[in-house]
Each structure stands twice: as C-alpha cells, then as structure tokens.
Amino acid sequence: MPEFHYLAKDENGNNVSGSVTAASEGEAILSLHNRNLAILSLTGEAPRRTWSILGRKGPTVRVKVDELAVFMRQLSTMIGAGLPVLEALEVLQERMENRGFKWAIRRIISDVRGGSALSHAMSQHPAAFNNLCVNMIVAGEASGQLDIILTRLAEYLEDTAALRRSIKAAMAYPVVVLTLILGITIFLMVFIVPRFKDIYDSLKVDLPGITSFILNLSVFLQNNFIMVFLGMIALAVAILIYSKTEFGGRQVDWLKLNVPVFGPLFSKVALSRFSRTFATLIDSGVPILGSLDIVAAAVGNRLLAQDIREARESVRQGTALAVPLSASPRFPPMVSHMVAVGERSGSLGELLHKVSEFYDQQVKAAIESLTSLIEPLMIAVMGCLVGSIVLSVFLPILRIQEVLAKH
Prior knowledge:
The chain is mainly α. It has 16 helices and 5 strands. Residues 46-56 have low confidence and may be disordered.
C-alpha cells in the first residue's frame, strides 16, 4: 500500500509530522482524523493515467460550471437517497448531452467498477474535475459524508456561476455600446467624411485645424483600412500573448486591481472568490495547506495568488494565517481580522462564509452602481466622438455662409 507523508497539529496545537500507510488518500485522512490530528498537508504517490479508446485519446472534455454544479447536485441527491455511487454515476451518464463530459464519466465508472475510489477516478480527468472538486470528494469519502460534501460543492459551484453571470451581464452593456460607438465612428470616418474633402478642395476654402485633422485622418483610414484593421487584430493578439506570460500576466492583474472605476469591482470579486473557496474547503475537512494551494489557483489573480502562497509558507512554519494576510496590502483589515477570530474560535469556515456573503453583496452593489454610471458615460463618449466629427465637417460650411452673407 502507498505511504502518505503528513504535517499536522495535535490537540495541544503543536506541529507534528510523519507518515501513514493507507490504501487511498481518503483512508489516510480518516486515519489521521481518528488520531485527533488537524491535517495541514498530506502528500503521497498517486499514479495518474491517461485513457484512450482504440489507441486514440477521447474527445475534448469541456465542462461549464453550470453543468458541473447540476452534476454534483444530482449525484448528491442520489447518494443521499441511498443509491450506490456506481449506479448513480451510470444514471447520470445516460442523461448527459455534453459528449466530452459523458466520456469522462464513462471512464470514471470503469475505474470505480475496478475498485478505485471516486476521488481517484475523478482526478484522472482534471479538465472536468479540478483540484478543489477532487480534494472535497476525498474529504467526503474519508468522513463518510459524501452526499453532504457533494451538496456543499454544488452550492459553491452554483454561487460561483451566479457571480460570473452577474459580472457578464454588467459587462455586456458597455461592451455592446462601445462596439456600436466604434462602428458608427469608423463608418463616418471611412464612408461619409471623405466626400466632404472633395467638396472643400473644389471650393478652395481655408479649413479650421480640427477639420483638416479629421479630413486627413478619414482619408488615411479610407486608403489604409485593411492595414489598420489587421494592425488592430495583431495588437490584440500581441496583448493576449503578453498577458499569458508570467510577467505580463502580473502586470495585467495589477491593472485589474488598480484601474479606475472597475478596479474595486475586480478586487471584491477576487476576495469573494478567495473567502468562498477557502470556506468551502475548510468546512469539508480539506487540509489547511492543501486548501491554500487550491485557493491560490482559484482566486483568479496572480498578485493575490502570490500573497496566498506566501501565507501558506508562513502557516507551514507555524505562523497564524491572519498574520501574513494582514501584512498584504491586497487583503483588507476586515478579512485578516475575521480570519484571526476564526482561528482563535475554531470557526474559520463559518466566518469566511460571512466574508464571502459580505463581498457578494458588495459586488452586486458595485455592479448596480456601475450600470447606472456607465450608461450616461457611454452616451457622453458617443456624443463627444460623433459631435466632434459633425462639428469639424460643418464648421467650413458655416464659414462659407458668413462669407456669402457679407458679399
């Protein structure tokens, strides 16, 4: 049987380490819990396989958060009703429409039928089941409360999906309006304004500076529209590639947190995600250090993730989690204080849920405020752009009328 190495705290709060032999990670966790040890980390050899059918890889597995939430909710309901895990998986697999997800569940059924634990079988398909899902199910198997853990996981996924939908809904309006503004501006500059240049050239009128600039710009865009369009695409691709690098990604994440208007919203979203994910893992019995690893990967911001990993190292060395969090400028004092109280009282998960609820409300309020602010802002931007073009085009006409009136 495999050997698992652990770092934990005993009943007196002292750090203890050692190894335990168990058939699976779930059994190792259960064994340590029976010894009244609070697990900080647990590592061991976990063989991973990649499955193939007829020597070829299976279909691409892409699972939406909503689909995963529904799956977890239904699996929890069936297991809670007394249905065996294998039979519940078979029922759910038959109903699935997502081809890749259905294939992954089929392979999981095969593994479970062969004697593997559900958590281990799911860990073979990280595209469908991330570390958070796998670790929570490990804890559920170890505690014998798999249906409760699955319900908790489903609730977490549903809350995450709801938050994403609200953010997308808030961002959709400005994106659509900005696209329309750019489309109208480009149409005027490429197809309408150049016609006035020929008229003014034939009349030999002295043009105001703004009119000369707009006319020259419109002619340039008309003659080089394809090159400008391709250049904009190339710039967007270059920015995307740059943001995928570690250095570029850190700069983009810094900009997200510090950009005017939207920065506070992005910060609140990240803090809500941190507290909700951490609370869900802690309540499910996942080791603290393992939870912090998962939270760092799930928080969605490299700067916050670095702070969380540094906090993890501090906790490994015996420091209370609230200490490194309070030292980070990206974690508000309320978060670190709530964590400190939770650590002292033993109700860390409960208090983190309260922090998550607080920031969820803050995000909703910020979205409503931004929605009411963006509408007049977009109208003002459109008025400035279109108004400048119209004004620059008609200023010479007004001058011509003044000259004709004098004569």
